[in-house]
Each structure stands twice: as structure tokens, then as C-alpha cells.
Amino acid sequence: MAHSRQASTHHLRNRHGSESVPPPKPTWLNLPNKFQLAILALSRFVDFFQMAALQTYMVHQLKSFDPELPDQVIAHQSGVLQGAFTAAQIVTSILWGRAADQPQIGRKTVLNIGLVGTGIGCIGVGFSKTYGQAVFWRFVSGAINGTVGSARTMVAEITPKPWHARAFLLLPAAFNFANMLGPMLSGALVDPTVNLAHYFGPGGTFGGSTGVAWMEKNPYAAANLISTVLLFSEALLVTFFLEETLKGKEPFQWETLNPIRLAQSAYEHAIRARNRGYQLVHETQRQGLLNGQERSSVEMDRLASSGGKAGESRPVQRLPFRRIWTSNVLWTLLSIAIFDFHMGAFNNLWILFLATPREFIPGVSDAAAQSVPQPAAAPKDEQLAVRRDLEGLVTRGVFKFAQGLAFPPPTIGFAMAIIGFIGIALQFLLYPTANAKWGQMRCFRASLFLFPAAYYLAPFIALLPSATSPPEPASGFYVWAGIGFVVLLQVAARTFALPASIMLLNNSSPHPSVLGTIHGVGNACSATFRTLGPILAGYWFGLWTERGIVGMAWWIVASVAALGCVASYWVRNGTGHEIVLPGEEQEEKEAQTAGGSGNGR
After folding, report:
1. Residues 258 and 345 placed together within one structural domain of the fold
2. Range of the domain at 343
3. Which residues does the annotated region (Disordered) include (predicted)?
């Protein structure tokens, strides 16, 4: 907290003009409230972890519910399963955002409810026996999860503005670490009686003579339970070590529930009332006495509320909900909507593409494939459209092909972990330098152009030479080089776009009193389009794969991402306090004199 006090002291000195001290240059070393930020970053890590873990084995778990279902139905179900979590947040995110702004509830309570509720939902998914049960538990998890808005709001409130760029960078860093560790750990824990037979199988360390029975009956339970353990552990950290940041809300003290202390406070209050006569007591004063506050503290509250000078504190003014919809808020929400749509679509398409079988006609030689009858009237290039390469891979043309990479869960986990590895490297090696050199808005807009390129190229990985023949999983240098290149483009774009979108949403808030609400609305917007993205992408993937064009779903998503490039030019970096309420004019002038606000476009 020393750095926080230093930053606050500097701010007060500047505002009152008694000293002219140059502001300290923001660095990682002098970042205020490191421990509090670490807890908040961990809250985002465990939340992202459970999402990344589910994506690793989702397709295979859906197939285990009904092995007879065709791939196009599985593609649609995977989109719905991912979308169920975010669909519930469309409504509840705004409610959780409003709840986080209420002094009776606060940010910390909303964050804790989300962590515990999501952990319970992970247990439900792990032990689900049908597709409907899995969707239900994902929906419940999403409805109760208000962690995103609360965590972002608390990061903004405990960090002075000069350090915002670094503090908000911790949230996508948590995303990248989760994307690296989540798929690897969960992929290894899928069907542990088989994949970890030495420990959990028959004759294993913990398996006994027949293996661990509940793991054999529920092969995806262990992979979900690791998420539950992390979520519950983080909830304990939040409960005992995270400080509430909402103005007007005192941190909850467990000792206030002590019945002896409550009785003592009530007795002291009765004695004072008898000695001084009856007088009207404010509700806040009554609560203060019941909570064991000192009499002087309650008296200060009474004076402040009655207009006395003892507290010198003005009541906190709140901007009405109807006034939050400024043009910058709307353009920022549109940009976030497009961003989250194609991000959600990519997550689903990538998993489906990695798990989709490779096309194979067993026993057909090259000559036989070349001799497949072609329409007599077809042009010469179309007559050669059906051909077979040396591995037995069937392709129908440069754009018309319908195969994936046929990866099993452990390999999918490794392929997903690459996203985290690259993300961490770019975030700490490239992002700070580029952001300092070209600025946040320039980097944000430029990065958006990498998304369409990545999505357009992704399906062509299936056409790269493989060291194995179909229907075996694709492998070899060229396949993994292709995966690495596409992931590099997508992650490089996300490295700049994700932290920028968080900061732009935070700074678009027209008044500090609605910051939690703005993050709640932003999360609801994100949830809406992260719901639509996977569902529509899964539908497009199944539809066009059946028609023999696996890349069409990718190219539709690339077109949507291109629209985001255009929309970004109407987004500007706000101040976080565009609207000044009556009585705030003098305070706003002092803040402007002290310097430091948004940088516009």
C-alpha cells in the first residue's frame, strides 16, 4: 500500500497547489496495490481457466452423450453449450453491475458469488450424463457469474490513472496464462483411468484392483473438478484479503456478527439515550452503532448528513441510468460487440476444426481417384477438381474441401496451449514497447486488421502436407507451422485489442458513479455477442462442412471482423467523467488543473 499512499499524496499536492512535484513515471515496480491487483488477476485467471478447460474436451464430451450423432449436429451443440454460459449473462450482467454499485452489496460480494456459483456449475457439467444437463449447468454458471464487471471496476478504482495501462494489462495476461494451463491440465485429466492409468486405472497408485470407479463412470468429471478447486480457492482469497473499493461501503467485518458485541453496542446506546433524552437517530447511525462503531464516528455521520461541517463530505451523486448512453458509449459497445462476436466464433470454430475428421476414401489409389467421372460439359479445371494426394487426403479444390485435423483431446489441449504461450510472450515483450511508441488507439485499430487475415487462412491448414495418412490425426512440421502462424496472427491482434477494449469501455463511462453499471452493460453486450458467435459459427460450420466447404464458416467470420476495423474509427478514448453533475464544477476544475484526462482519438 506504500506506493498507493505515495501516488495519492502526489495527487493531493497537485490539486491543492501547495507543492509542484513531477509525477513518478509509471512502471511495474511502483505500480500501486500490487497484492490487491494480484488477487483480481487471479479471479480472472480461474474464470478463464474453466472456459479454456471446457473448450478442450467439449466436442468429445458431447460425442460421449450420443456417439451416433453426425458431426454437423455436434458442431451445433458445441456452439449452444458455449453460448449457454454467455446467454445467461445477457440479462444478469446488467443486474450484477447495478448490484455492484449498491452500497448494500458492493463489488467484492458480487465477485465472490460469481466465483462460488461458477465452481458449482463446473461440478454439474463434469457429472452430466446428457446434453441437456450440460447446457443447464453452463446456463446456471453464466447467470450467477458477475466476475468480469466487478473485477474490471475494482482494478480501475484501486489504480491511479497513470498506471491504468499496466494494471489493465494484467487481465488479458491472466487470460493468456489460463489459455496455456487450462487446456494442458484439463486435457491430461480427461478419462484419467485410461490416459493416467498408472495413477487411476486398475492396479494404479490410487486405482486399486478395478480403477477409480467414479472416474470411469464420469470420464470428464476430473477435468471439471480442477476448475472447481481453483474457483473455490480464489473465493477464499477474495473473502479474506481483497478490500472493497465501492465508496460508501465499509468492508464487511466478521466480528460485527459477534452477539456479545452487538449486545454491548445496544446497551451502550440505551444508556446514552437515557442520559441525554430521546432523539431521532438516522438509519445509518443506527447501523453504525449496531456494527460497533465508535460514538464519535456516528456523530460525524449525523453532522455530515444534516449539513454540518464536521464531516465536510458531500453526498455521493449518481448519474441516472437513462443518461449513460452517450455517443462514445454506443460506439464503444458496437466495437466490443463485433470483437466479442468473432472472438467467440473463433473459439468454437478452432475447436471444431481441430477435432473434425480428415477426409479419406479407404483403398482408393491415385489413379482411381483421378478416374472419378466428371460432367462432360465441365471445364478442364473442374474436371481435375476431384483428386487424391499421396497420403489419401481427398481435396475437391482450393476452396472446396471438408476436412479438419482429427486431433484427440490431449493434442487439442496442446494446440490450445500454444495460444497462451504466444499470448504471454507478445504481451510482455511486444505490447509495452509498441503501445508506448504508437499509442493505444493506433495499436488498437491496427491490430483489428489481423483478425480477418487469421480467420481467412485458418481452414487451409487442413491442406498442408501431413506426416500421417488419414484418418489418423494430422501431424508434422508443416501442420504445426501452419497452426503456429495462424495463432500468431490471432493472438497478436488480441494482445492489443483486448486490453484496449477494456480500457476504452472503462474510460467511456460518462460519470464515476455509473462505472460498475457501464462495465455491467459492457459485459452484457459482450455476453450477447459471445453467445451469438459460437452458436452461429457452429451452425455455419456444420452446414458448410456437409456441403464440402469447411472454410465458409471461417470466411463469414472474417467478414464480420472486417466490419470491426471500420467501426473502430468512431471510438475515442474518453475521460471517464464526461458529464458533470451540479456541485461538481469546482472539483472538475481542480482535477483539470492537476492534469490528466483521456486523449480523445
Report:
1. no
2. 31-248+321-359+401-594
3. 1-25
Is residue 184 located within the same domain as residue 289?
Answer: no
pTM exceeds 0.85, yes or no: no
Strand segments (E) across 365-515: 387-388, 394-395
Q: Does 507 share its domain with 561? A: yes
Cβ partners under 8 Å of residue 55, min gap 6: 82, 183, 347, 351, 416
Distance, CA of 179 to CA of 193 (rounded, Å):
25
**SS3 sequence of 270-302:** HHHHHHHCCCCCCHHHHHHHHCCCCHHHHHHHH
Q: Does 331 share its domain with 463?
A: yes
The answer to whether 224 and 122 are in contact (CB under 8 A) is: yes
Please measure the distance between the N-terminal and C-terminal CA atoms of the chain and give it in whole angstroms: 33
Lowest mean pLDDT among 336-345, 374-383, 554-563, 565-574: 374-383
- 135, 260: one domain: no
Residue 11 in domain = no
Is 70 exceeded by the pLDDT of residue 475? yes
CATH of residue 171: 1.20.1250.20
Q: Given a cut of 90, is residue 125 above it in pLDDT? A: yes
379 assigned to some structural domain: no
Render 350-399 in DSSP notation, one character per residue.
HHHHHHSPPPB-TT--HHHHHTS---TTS-HHHHTSSEE-TT-BEE-SSS
SS (H, E, C) 161-205: HHHHHHHHHHHHHHHHHHHHHHHHHHHHHCCHHHHCHHHHCCCCC
Q: How far apart are CA 78 and CA 85, in angstroms?
A: 12
Same domain, 190 and 149: yes
What angle, rounded to 10 degrees, do the helices at 71-100 and 515-546 form?
A: 180
Residues 444, 446: Cα–Cα separation, whole Å: 6
User: Counting every residue, how long is the chain?
Assistant: 601
In 3D space, the residue among 526, 501, 523, 510 whose CA is nearest the CA of residue 441 turns out to be 501
Whether residue 139 contacts residue 88, with contact meaning beta carbons closer than 8 Å, is answered with: yes
Tally of structural domains, the chain: 2
Side-chain-side CA neighbours of 472 within 13 Å: the count stands at 8
Count CB neighbours of 45 within 10 A: 21
The answer to the question of residue 310 being in a domain is: no
User: For residue 351, what are the CA distances in angstroms to 53, 339, 506, 537?
Assistant: 12, 19, 31, 11
- Alpha-carbon distance of 186 to 341, in angstroms, equals 25
Q: Count how many Cα atoms sit within 13 Å of the Cα of residue 331 in the half-sphere of its side chain.
A: 17
**How far apart, in Å, are the Cα atoms of 506 and each of 168, 464, 516?**
10, 43, 9
